[in-house]
Amino acid sequence: MNTATRKQIILDQLGNPADIDRELQCFRRSARTLSSRHPRFIDRYQKKWVAVYDGKTKAQGRTLQSIWRQLDKQGLPREHVIVRYIDRNQRTMIL
Amino acid sequence: MLRGRFGDTSGRPYIEGRLILPNLNIRGDISFLVDTGSDVTCLHPIDGTRLNIDYGQLSGDAESIGTSGLSHDFTESAVVVFSEPKRFLYAYNITLRIAPVDPEIMTLPSILGRDILDQWRMIYNPQKSRLVFKVILADITVPLS
Known about the structure:
The complex is a heterodimer.
Chain A: H1 3-14, H2 17-36, H3 38-45, E1 48-53, E2 56-61, H4 64-74, E3 82-86
Antiparallel strand pairs in A: 1-2, 1-3
Chain B: E1 2-3, E2 5-6, E3 13-21, E4 26-34, E5 42-43, H1 45-50, E6 59-66, E7 69-84, E8 88-98, E9 111-112, H2 114-117, E10 120-125, E11 130-135, E12 140-143
Parallel strand pairs in B: 4-9, 5-8
Antiparallel strand pairs in B: 1-11, 2-3, 3-4, 3-7, 6-7, 7-8, 8-12, 10-11
């Protein structure tokens, strides 16, 4: 496959570039919101999963399955939601 | 320039991007852990399950080694996209590793590895909360204006 064909295939898969840019900016805001609120999140959601969409907490629970259920019930687009486990005693990560 | 962030409590470096899996008709946003020690980009179950990946459909058996020993991952053709807001999109066509679902690794974030990071120049300054990337190469660069 030549370079031009490969590039065209990628372009076809991208969809609307302006939509991607806008949606990624929204997702980044959610990620940063989660970070900036983390100290409060730790108190409120200690040892729970939390889902943030469009800068707002939309689900919380003890299991990931409950998070998926809550998100689906609210009709939220999972693909644009950030999910994290909140724990005061974070495990040291060595990858 | 692409902008990343440092996690407030963990201090870990992250960058957000769009993942497209054309063969599975799946697309979604991922907050990747920036990991220059990882040879390749890997999707972990926290994101795989969120995106409703049908793990029974996956194929490939790529072996890798980490501090916890050998692991076997699925492989999938993917496009990963990053945005420099209102300026450019940068897209990369990669062979993505997808780690199988395992309760032991559910809290691990997905990893952005050197298959993409080697095409950027990085400023990593946690003291000043500055994590930025200059894109040197991309498979596709799409202007947004």
